[in-house]
Amino acid sequence: MYQDFKQLKITVEENGIATVRIPTAGSVGRHQSEIHKEVASVWRRLDDDEAVSVVIVTGAGDEFYRSANIQGLKSIPSLDKENTFELAQRLAKEGNDIVYGIINIDKPVISAVNGAAEGGGLAIALLSDISIAAKDAQLVDPHIAMGLAAGDHAAMIWPLLCGMAKSKLYLLTSDALTGSEAERIGLVSLAVSSEEIMDVARDYAVRLAEGPKFAIRYTKRALNQWLRLGGITSHDYSSALELLNFFGPELGEAVDKAQKTKEHED
After folding, report:
1. 0.85 cut: is pTM over it?
2. Domain boundaries, the chain
């Protein structure tokens, strides 16, 4: 059922636990693009699979998922208006498919954040129904550092999880926080050692897989009304503002600044 997913490693056990492992994307544009496309489309497939009761999503390597970085965005300022618009439309659709895919999938989703989570990776980590982070995992919303408005998921869910003060502190600065700090402020459900993370995620997955299926699904569906409301009030708006930055000067300025910083460090 998942043979056409060439980037993600997807397994489904007899007990109904599906595990989705996301490979390290690196900074190669085409590889990033292929991974992002599959991450965006996998939720509907998992929801339609009657053999799946619970989903665990984690990184295949030493990172969880970093969907974009400065190197991956450096070509955007040189694109003409038509190609920039086309890219913006694709990213907007895939971004919404990730956000609303996790919200709308009836099966509970557990994120095992084994390493760095940025951009779309952070969206997956935080929108999952139970989020378990390694204590030393680095979580960062890099939009401001990239000269972009914070779209993806942040305006929708951060204020609900950790309040407006902490949301603004981290989103307006693009400062990173560890899994331990994320647990302390309520951004993730749990922070555990990296050695424990998959065992803890699996323990919760087994409990959910063995629990009353429709009671769990309907509770998730009702709770996620808050997120759907957040989609109306802030997410769709923030995503549009993020893509508007594609046509302004700040993205290019952020890329130049990052490249100069890297050259200085080297």
Report:
1. yes
2. 9-265
